[in-house]
Design brief:
Structural class: alpha+beta
Distance between the termini: 33 Å
Largest sheet: 9 strands, mixed
CATH architecture: 3-Layer(aba) Sandwich
CATH class: Alpha Beta
Number of helices: 4
Number of domains: 1
CATH superfamily: Gcn5-related N-acetyltransferase (GNAT)
Helix content: 10-25%
Oligomer: single chain
Number of strands: 9
Order of helices and strands: EHHEEEHEEEEEH
Strand content: 25-35%
Shape: globular
CATH topology: Aminopeptidase
């Protein structure tokens, strides 16, 4: 398995993986919208490949933390998808670990995820609320709104998260 940043030639495979994994086109639409925005970080949109086949995909992109010191850019992990034919083989974990390593080397302060509470803690994610980070909507379950604090995080990183318009346009926000 090879993990590398996505290339334009991977876009159709990335969409297919997300559509199959989520059973909807919402996440693939979200990815397209993020790619068209200034929040896209090409080197943090990764694919897991077997030959030329996209088995999995992960994307880290920017959103905003409304802090007491003003708006701060932070990274969000969304989406993470592995094609159902390739699930339960460690591909998702490999993508998360590889991506988090890249994020930490960039000196980012933290990564947010709105996800499965039983999955993400194995990577160091924990509930965001005890760290003073709140979701954009009270409808998002506290246990599903998680943060991984990185070494460069400071106490300034507290406040309410503001999702970019792409998340709402794609219909991928909360329950």
């Amino acid at each position: 398995m090879l993990i590398r940043p996505e290339a334009e030639a991977d876009f159709a495979g990335v969409a297919a993986v997300n559509n199959a994994a989520f059973g909807t086109e919402n996440e693939a639409h979200l990815i397209d919208l993020i790619r068209q925005s200034d929040l896209y970080v090409p080197e943090l949109s990764l694919v897991a490949l077997e030959g030329d086949t996209v088995m999995g995909h992960i994307m880290f992109s920017y959103m905003t933390l409304e802090s007491a010191d003003g708006d701060l850019p932070i990274l969000d992990l969304a989406p993470l998808a592995v094609h159902p034919d390739w699930q339960n083989r460690g591909i998702g974990s490999a993508l998360v670990n590889h991506g988090l390593g890249l994020v930490e080397r960039r000196g980012e302060p933290l990564v947010l995820v709105e996800g499965i509470p039983s999955y993400y803690p194995r990577f160091g994610f924990e509930r965001a609320s005890p760290h003073g980070i709140t979701p954009p909507s009270p409808a998002i379950p506290d246990e599903a709104f998680m943060v991984k604090l990185l070494p460069s995080c400071t106490p300034a990183y507290r406040g309410r998260v503001r999702y970019p318009p792409a998340f709402y346009a794609a219909g991928t926000v909360g329950p």
